[in-house]
Amino acid sequence: QVQLVESGGGLVQPGGSLRLSCAASGSIFGLNAMGWYRQFPGKQRELVAVIGSGGGTNYADSVKGRFTISRDNAKNTVYLQMNSLKPEDTAVYYCNLKVVFTQYDYWGQGTQVTVSS
Questions:
Q1: In angstroms, rounded to a whole number, what is the distance separating the alpha carbons of residues 88 and 11?
Q2: How far apart are CA 82 and CA 59, in angstroms?
Q3: What mean pLDDT value characterizes the chain?
Q4: In this structure, are residues 5 and 26 in contact, taking their beta carbons and an 8 Å threshold?
Q5: Which of 34, 36, 55, 56 is nearest to 46 (CA)?
Q6: In this predicted model, which residue has the larger pLDDT, 8 or 75?
Q7: In terms of DSSP bridges, do strands 91-99 and 46-51 run parallel, antiparallel, or are they unpaired?
Q8: What is the pLDDT of residue 103?
Q9: Contact 79, 50 (CB under 8 A)
Q10: CA distance 4 to 83
Q11: What pLDDT sits at residue 22?
Q12: Spatial contact of 114 and 51, defined as CB atoms under 8 Å apart
């Protein structure tokens, strides 16, 4: 059983910054990748950024140069630093953990990020 608890969402003005955090707890075994996804109203959930256990990262083209994903393995926590936020970044952001070489795939509850003046 794995639980992901997110924090850091909220309302921010265009050009502003937010940092999302996601702490994982429970029975976490093996190598895992953690990441952030977002979902716009009426759209499919899409990748924002992922980070492997060794620190390798991948980003959606739309956020490259603005967002940075990082993880603290000692704390089982993943972060998403979001800079230069745009109104089109407004979405529900979800934390994800995948256990490598297994079917296990865990999701957080989601946190709303709203970018508006």
A1: 13
A2: 12
A3: 94
A4: no
A5: 36
A6: 8
A7: unpaired
A8: 87
A9: no
A10: 23
A11: 96
A12: no
Residue 18: CB atoms within 10 A of its CB come to 21
Query: Phi and psi (nearest 5°) for 87?
Result: -55, -35
Cβ–Cβ under 8 Å, residues 91 and 80: no
Q: Any idea which residue has 């499919």 for tokens?
A: 44
User: How far is the CA of 62 from the CAs of 65, 66, 92, in angstroms?
Assistant: 9, 9, 16
What are the pLDDT digits (tens) for 6-59? 999 999 999 999 999 999 998 877 788 999 999 999 999 999 999 998 899 999
Contacts of 23 (CB under 8 A, 6+ apart): 4, 5, 75, 76, 77
Sign of the C-alpha dihedral computed for residues 25, 28, 31 and 34 taken in this order? negative
Per-residue pLDDT tens for 88-97?
999 999 999 9
74 pLDDT higher than 90: no
